[in-house]
Amino acid sequence: MDRTDKQQQQPLAKCARKRYNEWIFRDVPSDITIEVSGGTFSLHKFPLVSRSGRIRKLVAEHRDSDITRVDLLNLPGGAESFELVAKFCYGINFEITSSNVAQLCCVSDYLEMNEEFSKDNLGSRAEEYLESIVCKNLEMCVEVLQQCEMLLPLADELKVVSRCIDAIASKACAEQIASSFSRLEYSSSGRLNMKRQAKSDGDWWIEDLSVLRIDLYQRVITAMKCRGVRPESIGASLINYAQKELTEKSSLWNPSSQTKVDFKSGSNGHEKLVVETIVSLLPIEKLIVPISFLFGLLRSAVMLDCNVACRLDLERRIGSQLDIATLDDLLIPSFKHAGDTLFDVDTVHRILVNFSQQDDSEDDLEADSVFASDSPHAPSQTALVKVAKLVDNYLAEIAPDANLRLSKFIVIAETLPAHAQTVHDGLYRAIDIYLKSHQEIHYAALMAEDDHKPAHQSWRISSGALSAAMSPRDNYASLRRENRELKLELARLRMRLNDFEKEHVCMKRTMAKSGSRKFMSSFSKKIGKLSFFAHSSSRGSSSPSRYSHRTDSKVIERTCASTE
């Protein structure tokens, strides 16, 4: 035990000593000292050995030397638990509650306080309370599970955890069944109908579960699925838990947080585990959770560098319902390294591939996908048209990015089948924006044109000179005419080159001075509008608003810092 631990335990020891001095036998001197984590108790052997098999054995082993001190530093629950044990051994009444029953179950097992050594011992009393009181109340089960977080693995070995989890799942399922029956009513025609369900009917437990640690929460949700709890309720619980863990408790997506998040340090292990676990728990049915929530999880997975299976699962789910996505959904920031595109184009490309190849991948999905019970079909023409329009607007939004290579721009534009594009205006607009923002492509094309034109002209001149059918006078006139055309063409070429060089120099100066303010303004505005776990989006995918200048300085500051 280091010096810091001892300093922290001194106040606990004083507090425990003060409490037990109020009820201990003061007229009989103590003959044994029990040291536990967080306190030391001066007690009497007889009350302890009459209830605890472990202490009885320790005393019996040292009968010759008359043991006066016993160390129980690994006692579950420390000084707080042992104080209750000591009270029980001395016949002092105390109340067993949901906040201490898990400790009592574990400490009674550790000290062997069972029926073998004493009738109606602490272990049997704690077990009776757990079975008859706690397991019949969902809120109390959740509280006991919270207490078990510090008592693992012993609480698991004693099946305290599993009994509470089974009780929660059974109670939630029973509540939903009762809620469904309560909505049955007879219509005027005598037919039995079911009233529309209120959002909170039978799902009041969602908020209660959000206090659990992620590993226990995962076990509860898994048990609920096995019991047949509605997928809609499972989805609502996952959304609520994600919002608590990734927005309220964590600085990851909290705009008001002053703490800069370092995504490369590996200090976000908890958030990463939460995202991967929630994705693994998502219901297999489509449209159970909003697509904006799936995109929020995907942004988190990209930022936290979650495992490949997690990201591919999200991309597949999103791809199966991409026709209801918005432009803001697709704007996933890139967190790779400096010099990369500001938005994650590769992830969007994989989502588009999943959308367009749903029919082709049906056999694979039936085998091992999360959509086994809801096999996808080829997207309808209506869905294709919607996604094609979405892609056009996405291309227009990312086109000004100086780091966006032409090959990536083209691969996004060509992902969907040809019949998806019924109108090409949006694509032409995106191409125009890209070319204006990447004028080096104009410049390179012009250089190629410059290399091509003289060869063409020389062929015309030589072909005229070698024409034996022409008279000398006609041949001379033809050469003069071609010479004038060549001079005019060269003059136009020089003027165009000068114009492009001036524009190229101006563009480089502007980029150097302002740090590409025009594009960063658009990027900042988009990042500021992203709602990582929103239930709905504020606007559709009709068109990108590139000239709006609203920004969220804190979000963009953290985003840019992560790529440095």
Walk me through what this model shows.
By secondary structure, the chain is mainly alpha-helical. Helices cover 59% and strands 4% of the residues. It contains 25 helices and 5 strands. The longest helix has 43 residues, at 472-514. The protein is elongated and about 140 Å long. Mean pLDDT is 76; it is low at 1-14, 361-375, 455-468 and 535-564. Its main location: membrane. Residues 30-98 form the BTB domain.
Order of helices and strands: HEEHHEHHHHHHEEHHHHHHHHHHHHHHHH
Number of strands: 5
Helix content: 55-70%
Radius of gyration (CA) equals: 36 Å
Structural category is mainly alpha
**Share of β-strand residues:** under 5%
Any low-confidence stretches, pLDDT <50, length ≥5? 1-14, 361-375, 455-468, 535-564
Number of helices: 25
Give the overall shape, derived from the CA principal axes.
elongated
Order of strands across the widest beta sheet? 2-1-3
Mean pLDDT: 76
Pfam families: BTB, NPH3
Protein name: BTB/POZ domain-containing protein family
GO cellular component, one term: endomembrane system
Main location: membrane
Concise description?
With 564 residues, the protein is mainly α. The chain is built from 25 helices and five strands.
Topology:
Blueprint: H1 3-20, E1 32-36, E2 39-43, H2 45-49, H3 53-61, E3 69-72, H4 78-89, H5 101-110, H6 122-132, H7 138-148, H8 154-157, H9 160-182, E4 184-186, E5 192-194, H10 206-209, H11 214-227, H12 231-248, H13 269-281, H14 291-304, H15 308-319, H16 327-330, H17 345-356, H18 362-368, H19 381-398, H20 406-413, H21 425-437, H22 440-465, H23 472-514, H24 517-529, H25 553-562
Parallel strand pairs: 1-3
Antiparallel strand pairs: 1-2, 4-5
Helix pairs in contact: 1-4, 4-5, 5-6, 7-9, 9-11, 11-13, 12-13, 13-14, 14-15, 15-17, 19-21, 22-23
